[in-house]
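Notebook entry, structure prediction.
Reason for the run: the old model in the group folder had no record of what sequence produced it. Starting over properly, with the input documented here first.
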Amino acid sequence: QLELVESGGGLVQPGGSLRLSCAASGSLVDLAVIGWFRQAPGKKRVGISTIDSTGRSTEYADSVKGRFTISRDKNTVFLQMNSLKPEDTAVYFCAGDLIETLNPNIFRFWGRGTQVTVSS
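New structure, fully documented this time:
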């Protein structure tokens, strides 16, 4: 089992930065791949980035490469988001499971999400 709690969302101007945190706990935490996903109003949930249990293997969606950075410090996973655009506005979720993939349908364990709004 995994329990996941996101924090760090908020309102930011275009070009600004935010750092999201995902605190993970539970029996699978030492083995888990943790991913960040987002869902904009009226759109499907999509994968943004994942990091494996060691923190050495990461993956990014093309839409965020070069702007977002995922990192892991023990049981907390961070998503540093720079050069934010209005189209990054969404609810951001972290999720965990044992497979490294950006496909949200694979992940069994989910946090409740945190809102990120990019607007002037």
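Summary: The radius of gyration is 13 Å.
The old model has been moved to the deprecated folder.
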